[in-house]
Design brief:
- There is one protein chain.
- By secondary structure, the chain is an alpha/beta fold.
- The chain is about 50% helix and about 15% strand.
- Strands 2-6-1-7-8 form a 5-stranded parallel beta sheet. Strands 3-4-5 form a 3-stranded antiparallel beta sheet, with helices on one face.
- The radius of gyration is 17 Å and the shape is globular.
- The two termini are about 15 Å apart.
- It binds cytidine-5'-monophosphate.
- Cytidine-5'-monophosphate (C5P) binds next to helix 2, helix 4 and helix 8.
- Catalyzes the condensation of pantoate with beta-alanine in an ATP-dependent reaction via a pantoyl-adenylate intermediate.
Amino acid sequence: NRQPIVAIDGPAGAGKSTVTRRVAQELGLIYLDTGAMYRALTWRVMSANIDIDDEPAIAEIVSQSEISLVESNDGVQVWIDEEEVTKEIRSLEVTANVSAIAALATVRRELVKQQQRWGAKGGIVAEGRDIGTFVFPDAELKIFLTASVEERARRRWQDIKEQKQGDMSLEQLEKDIQQRDLRDSTRAIAPLRKAGDAIEIKTDGMSISEVTERIVNLYHQKG
Ligand code: C5P
């Protein structure tokens, strides 16, 4: 007997993070950003100068590291072991390498186990690539958030500009997003894909509030 679970999956840059955070807030549920966990681990691997092809060394790191997501006044803080890496995990470097690391069997086994432990009592809105298909297949509400690659690249470009993360052309961002989607949707284990019972929302031209409201309404309709 557990509390409800909402699963929100979709490709890179579809607005999942902002929307999921808002949905969790409005429904009074806990927000679980599973991408942040794969990113934190990627950051750790890179900062330890381990080659991203060195699976045994990465497996070692996975088994030894502890990732925590801590609610704070200005959002969720991401920690790995004794280090706070909330900002670091959003860097272009981590973003470029995370899909390769997230494809490894040992990495997924360990992080999924942790996610399922955190979600065992329910009462969460979890965001990722394989939540509805794999992590919480019995979630009460499953959403698949998408948008055209052009729209997603434009949103990423805005973010990068606002956060002064550097200078990236729209064309380059489109290429990067497409490559990450390809890697995430063609990997052997738990690839990105819409669950059969997920509701797809195409967010082109929709505001964050509109998308949030749509999901909150769907949740109440299900209840
Ligand atoms: O959602 P975000 O862009 O932060 O996710 C970063 C990467 O982590 C994804 O591109 C994917 O490779 C991986 N990921 C995953 N499974 C999840 C969440 C994220 O493989 N549930």
